[in-house]
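Worked Example 4.2. Read the sequence first, then its structure tokens.
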Amino acid sequence: MVLRLKLTRAENYQHYAVPANTIYSIELEEYLRHVVPSEMSVSWKPEAIKTQAVCARSYAAYNANQRASKTYDMDDTTNFQSFHANRSDSRSDAAIQATSGIFVLYDGKVAYTVFSSSNGGETESSKERWGNALPYLIDQKDPWTLATRQAKSGHGVGMSQYGAQYAATLGKTYQEILAFYFPGTTLGTINGKSVAAAGTGSSSTQASADKPASPLPSASTQANANKPTSPSSATSTGADVGKTGWVKVNSAGLKVRKSPNGSTLNYTLPNGMSVTILEQSDAGGYTWYRVSDPLGRTDGWVRGDFIVWADPIAAQPVPSPSTASASAAGKAPNPPIPSDAPDVVYAPSAAKQPPAAAASATSVSPSADAPSYVGKTGEIKVNSAGLNVRKAPSGALAAWKLSNGTKITVLEQQADKKATWLRVKDDQGRTGGWVDSSFVVWDDAAQA
């Protein structure tokens, strides 16, 4: 399949030595080589990257079908899928090759396989988000994403990337992951107008073809299921090596270091995240642990006094993911992209964002025991799509986003039922925007 890709990024049209906004013809599998590593970290589990590859392939084919009468199928930005011509990697190449030609199908047609960074623990239906009900984009609990403690980032419809990564650490295959996030679909190949179920060589597209072969994790199994690395991989011994613990820290998150008492890495661990102790050492008057977290990261050291041996967040019953069939969802022909749906993977654009809920949200000042951020400085931690900035707490989107690493100073603070919102001054001097505090890492965080 050849895609018509509009090159709007300077790095891309310069790479191909063509003018800006050129409609560039590119083979689908070559397109994926530059999309998959742009949308998901190539250091994540192979099954998660395979999941991303199939989602990206299906999303591209769906748009090509729906936009056949347009001048181009997609552009190279997060309006569709992030494309960097200079970005490729052998690990994502391997995932693309392993899933070559495989699409997510519904009723014999390629499905609308949207995805976002994190759904916060529950997928959102296409009807709720965009007003058009797609039978495989439903509202359901997502214990995989819930287990990562990652706040919602993006629209929350379809596949959660953090959830896919966590599922992969539990040994789930990409087929199982896709079957959960797109219930009632099958995996298949496309050859002209004929469709064959993946791995069968037949024309069957029964919804049961790619359902999970085993039950997914329930609340009672989470504590022991989240050990992505065997304790035997530790290079030193200690009384706590092999234990499972939980991060106990404030909203700034726990700093992770390259070595005991060493320089910091570029991520923090949120309160309540489970970790497995791989290595133990003493330095600077503290006990330090090298830990494995639910995202498979094993290179970081944290201070032991911020690890507890009982989950600090009260356990809530988490039902097993729904395996609702297509018939239960009201099987119907694959509908077109909703007219008001954003052409975006990570975060809806301002022009097509659903109406803001600011009118119904009640902003309040922080309670006496809530942390105060006014006057603090920090930096934005977010994926490549950037952080949405709002005109008011829970309000409409502003005309700009803040990129990862942007330095900010907090000018005002308000909270509602959704989040603690901060009005910030950014490094360009803008002061009219509000952001969710969960995407800020503080310069003066007490955690070492």
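Now turn to a second chain, presented in exactly the same format:
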Amino acid sequence: MIIILATVLVVSIGGSIVYAYASSYNEIGLKIGGIVNDVVLNIHAQHPQLQLTHAHVLAVMCQELPSLSINDINSEGRQEGYTQVIISTYQGLVSGSLLGGACAYTASLEGGACADPHSRTDNARCSIEVGACLYDYLLSQCNGDPACAYNGYNTGSIQRFAQGTPDFVRGYNALSHGQLCAKAAFNRPLWESILHAVDVVTGGTFKTNAAAYVPSSKYNLLRTKIPSASAIQSAPYSYINKQMQHLFGGSDTHAHSSYKQKPRSVSSRRKSHSTTTQTNDNGTNDTSAHTTLQAMQRPKANNEIICLPKPIAPGEEAIVMWACDASSDNAQSADIQTDGHTQGAVRVTPTATATYSVSCKKGDTEISKLTCTVPVDVALHL
């Protein structure tokens, strides 16, 4: 059990009480990363022919509950946990009455705790594995197509398009390359810690061919209150490295991401651009402050710009992502800081509805102008 008292985190692991200062909030993220790894290993052992990766599981979590607060109330007024599996579906999966019993094994996990549908909102392992098992099954029905599988996950039918599928696919593509999904902005410090843990245990691949039966995860979290992003104090990297060694064993020398040098930056595994974090105080858009996250190293795409999430409350954080196609060699904007990069993302904190534009250029010639809007709804502050 984890209880937050003022600036002290009290963690009960295997009956032993461990105290840590508030800077150890990131340990929660590291443990969630460990749980995700145990989930993937266990599902591979149960269904060795299937194709689930760490990136798939993280993408489901990022799309369904990016705040990472397991008992958050969703837009339909319910608490559904990390993977947002509704109670009737959860009961059918753990009982074996759905999917031909493919997920019935989950009922015995964590000493049988996962058989109780209430574990969706107070047991991290149960919440993640039951949803991951469902998505894994849908992947098999879709020949490994992540979009098709998410359609089924969200709508109940792989034949029916889910409105959130484009966002899910973008998140999956980012995570499979070790980059934060856009919705990670809801709780960036914890997402960075999760990605760092998965980066380490997978050697930077965010997938594995390994399999192991894991009836109980030593990283599991029960009834964990996740602090909001604004309440989290990032720990120094030396502390995070120490926690990694404590949780996963050995040294952290095989981590492949930029977290080691810049623990607050997004991971990047390609070397054509460096990851940067800098603040621009001279932007021409006077409704927002904006900070460069990184030159995102993802494959060239069609000209595209995305603003997420929508809508936000005044002063909350959103992300603007852009990608120019291969015909462009630079990108410029009067609204955000692009540093000339043809692909990237910035954080913005508008106080009123704001529109952001990026010009994709070949030299000084504009190839395409991309525009997206972040709606700001004052009512969300109420």
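Notes for the reader: Residues 2-248 form one domain. The CA atoms of residues 240 and 351 lie 34 Å apart.
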